[in-house]
Design goal:
499 residues, Nucleotidyltransferase, domain 5, six-stranded mixed beta sheet, glycerol kinase activity, kinase, nucleotide-binding, Glycerol_kin, transferase
Length: 499
């Protein structure tokens, strides 16, 4: 009986392979960053071939570090940056163009064009999503309209589309030599081409977006055996789980009950609440999305609030302004002052996502006086993440008709105790950090392990979940109200900046 489950986590800035044991503990991990390509302002791309090479490398490295043989691995799960769009040739495996990353803004004109006829919520009933630069459908349309020869190849069935999960699985299972072209329901629900009720590609949407059906992957549950790895890194190991990264974190946090929610603090922030088998349409600017679907089970839905820029703001302070040397320095600098000194930072670098959905917003720093130091700025940077999260939680409570009892958190920023305490304070509720913060990779491992019987059921997974620390709110109501009022004023100043 194999002893471990592996997960490939293909993220926005790096690709990792993590191997887990039955208790959900890490046995081995390897990681490699890839280049962020910015051809012009607002455009963000990745090189898919670089990512594929990195994937092979981290899988091999994780095996070497853990001294693991192929026989030790029961299954492999995949989780990925969602919405990042890649098209490649079925016969050669060569991409037609760089992958267009979820943060990319080049489709802003298309958003305006489509919204002019039927408004921003034109496709929300079918897809749960507003028209925004964020999702894959418009990125794919842009590629079809702008890359020479692509549309002809797509109509012939020679050009394939996928998010990064699809590209990685296709390559792992043989690539041009019989690679499997598939995706799971969570990733498909982020393309704006899948109907949330039928869980199939929607002909009306394909026709509106002018996307040939022949290039789309098959949609499958998030947990089942799709096929075996043919690549030399893990030959014969079943690929048995696929989840978009935020849904993977929801599964990794074992939020299997309706009303349970998690917030992942990464490049952006992503708050998901499980709504069970009920599809809840949002009236407060959230997305309705697929949470997960396990083999032979009905699909589970979620409400999601996405914040585009959180951890990326810390990187910006580091790389663009040079105020800190490394990301972890932000907490020390922020702790050098007692409060934000009246300064607020709205990081609308690529517009605002939930619950505002303002593509014309841009970043502002408000409330500056001579008193404000770099310590106050560092604090404002951290606080921006907490305020944006509160905006999303309040919208979610309205939509779901329930108040959040506690917030389960994960992602790179949860090690920052100043931020986590401030989050509890402005949220006025407990913030719960689990022992295992690598919940995204863990969720993909769980999906794969369930499919092959490595874990028997959801109770096996729930037993692995443990609390490292709970932050309780410790701020008086008057101060909380004053801070949130300041934030509200600042965020309104960012609206309508772009013509």
């Amino acid at each position: 009986m194999p002893t471990y489950v592996a997960a490939i986590d293909q993220g926005t800035t790096s690709t990792r392979c993590i191997v887990f044991d039955r208790q959900g503990q890490i046995v081995s991990v390897a990681q490699k960053e890839h280049k962020q390509i910015y051809p012009q302002p607002g455009w963000v791309e990745h090189d898919p071939e670089e990512i594929w090479r990195n994937t092979l490398e981290v899988v091999a490295l994780a095996r070497i570090k853990g001294k693991l043989s192929v026989q030790d691995i029961a299954a492999i799960g995949i989780t990925n940056q969602r919405e990042t769009t890649v098209v490649w040739n079925r016969k050669t495996g060569k991409p037609y163009y760089n992958a267009i990353v979820w943060q990319d803004m080049r489709t802003a004109d298309l958003v305006a064009q489509f919204s002019a006829d039927g408004g921003q919520d034109r496709f929300r009933t079918q897809t749960g999503l507003p028209l925004a630069t964020y999702f894959s459908g418009l990125k794919l349309k842009w590629l079809l309209d702008n890359v020479a020869g692509l549309r002809e190849d797509a109509e012939r069935g020679d050009a394939l589309f996928g998010n990064m999960d699809t590209f990685v699985v296709w390559n792992l299972t043989g690539g041009p030599h019989g690679g499997l072209h598939l995706t799971d329901v969570t990733n498909a629900s982020r393309t704006q081409l899948m109907n949330l009720r039928t869980l199939n590609w929607d002909d009306a949407l394909l026709s509106d977006f002018t996307v040939p059906r022949a290039m789309l992957p098959q949609i499958r549950p998030s947990s089942e055996i799709y096929g075996n790895v043919t690549s030399e890194v893990l030959p014969g190991v079943p690929i048995a789980g696929i989840l978009g990264d935020q849904q993977a974190a929801l599964v990794g946090q074992t939020c299997f009950e309706a009303g349970q929610a998690k917030n992942t603090y990464g490049t952006g922030c992503f708050l998901l609440m499980n709504t069970g088998t009920e599809l809840r349409e949002s009236t407060y600017g959230l997305l309705t999305t697929v949470a997960y679907q396990f083999q032979n089970e009905p699909v589970r839905y979620a409400l999601e609030g996405s914040v585009a820029i959180t951890g990326a703001l810390v990187q910006w302070l580091r790389d663009n302004l040079g105020i800190i040397k490394k990301s972890t320095d932000i907490e020390t600098l922020a702790r050098s002052v007692d409060d934000n000194g009246g300064a607020y930072f709205v990081p609308a670098f690529s517009g605002l996502y939930a619950p505002h959905w303002k593509a014309d917003a841009r970043g502002v720093i408000a409330g500056l006086t001579r008193f404000v130091t770099k310590g106050h700025l560092a604090r404002a940077v951290l606080e921006a993440t907490a305020y944006q999260t509160v905006d999303v939680v309040r919208a979610m409570e309205q939509d779901a008709g329930v108040s959040l009892k506690s917030l389960r958190v994960d992602g790179g920023m949860v090690v920052n105790s100043l931020l986590m305490q401030f989050q509890a304070d402005v949220l006025n509720g407990p913030v719960v950090c689990p022992r295992m913060t690598e919940t995204t990779a863990l969720g993909a491992a769980y999906a794969a392990g369930l499919a092959v019987g490595y874990w028997q059921n959801l109770d096996d997974l729930r037993q692995n979940w443990g609390i490292a620390k709970t932050y309780e709110p410790d701020m008086d109501e008057a101060q909380r109200a004053r801070l949130m009022r300041g934030w509200q004023k600042a965020i309104e100043r960012s609206f309508g900046w772009e013509e």
